[in-house]
């Protein structure tokens, strides 16, 4: 065989190897996870976290916080901005007024607003009442817990039990009336006490996306650990606002 023929064979083999490798390279690139989509411009915005995503480790891991805030909550904001394009009144009304009057909405958007504006309201409250080094309940909040919920230990046990009993996805809340009375209530999916004319003092998310990376099916363990993330100073502010009639989301 001539040297020219051997060179041709070598080039051909090299070319075949490169072609064979190319699809694997394309597949590897395609399999990379896409970044979270940015919410479209509109009246609804994703509130930034007031703390780093790893602030609550080991109780809640940074990856769960990142996915929960940047993807799940962001999706509710995106969906509300999309529906507001053809229903601009949603972006100018107070969230509590919209959620408190869902039956006034057109049937074509009622389900979307219930789920996505409810999710936006719930999560906005959720990030607000959490914070590292959250302390302990004091003052009027502690007095209300003692008066209405049987003391801090009983309250936490009852709250955890209610969250554990919530079937499927949902939330466990502490509702607060205008006279400061507290009660433990649960809601399915992204329903919010505002839909019943009430206000949430605080609440915990028991959707699996809130805990599954660390806790899998051990919701009870997550509920217990979550108390390490509660910012009682912020809850005291919300309690004062509720008694003044100014508590919104």
From TrEMBL:
SUPFAM superfamilies: Fe,Mn superoxide dismutase (SOD), C-terminal domain, Fe,Mn superoxide dismutase (SOD), N-terminal domain. Destroys radicals which are normally produced within the cells and which are toxic to biological systems. It is an enzyme of class 1 (oxidoreductase). The keyword Metal-binding applies. It catalyses: 2 superoxide + 2 H(+) = H2O2 + O2. This is Superoxide dismutase. Mn(2+) binds at residues 68, 123, 205, 209. Residues 1-28 form the signal peptide. One of its GO terms (molecular function) is superoxide dismutase activity. PANTHER family: 37S RIBOSOMAL PROTEIN S26, MITOCHONDRIAL, SMALL RIBOSOMAL SUBUNIT PROTEIN MS42. It comes from Bradyrhizobium lablabi.
């Amino acid at each position: 065989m001539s040297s020219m023929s051997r060179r041709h064979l070598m080039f051909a083999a090299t070319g075949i190897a490169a072609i064979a490798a190319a699809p694997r390279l394309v597949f590897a690139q395609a399999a990379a996870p896409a970044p979270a989509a940015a919410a479209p411009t509109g009246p609804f915005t994703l509130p930034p976290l007031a703390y780093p995503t790893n602030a609550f480790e080991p109780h809640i891991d940074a990856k769960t916080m990142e996915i929960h805030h940047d993807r799940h909550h962001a999706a509710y904001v995106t969906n509300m901005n999309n529906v507001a394009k053809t229903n601009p009144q949603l972006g100018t009304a107070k969230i509590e007024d919209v959620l408190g009057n869902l039956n006034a909405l057109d049937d074509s958007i009622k389900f979307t607003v219930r789920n996505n504006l409810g999710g936006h309201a719930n999560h906005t409250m959720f990030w607000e009442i959490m914070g590292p080094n959250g302390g302990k309940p004091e003052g009027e909040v502690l007095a209300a817990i003692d008066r209405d919920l049987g003391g801090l230990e009983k309250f936490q046990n009852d709250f955890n039990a209610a969250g554990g009993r919530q079937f499927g996805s949902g939330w466990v809340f502490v509702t607060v009336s205008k006279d400061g009375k507290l009660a433990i209530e649960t809601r399915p999916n992204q329903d919010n006490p505002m839909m019943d004319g009430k206000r949430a003092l605080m609440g915990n998310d028991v959707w699996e996306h809130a805990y599954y990376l660390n806790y899998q099916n051990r919701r009870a363990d997550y509920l217990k650990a979550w108390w390490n993330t509660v910012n009682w100073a912020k809850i005291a502010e919300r309690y004062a606002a509720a008694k003044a009639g100014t508590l919104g989301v």
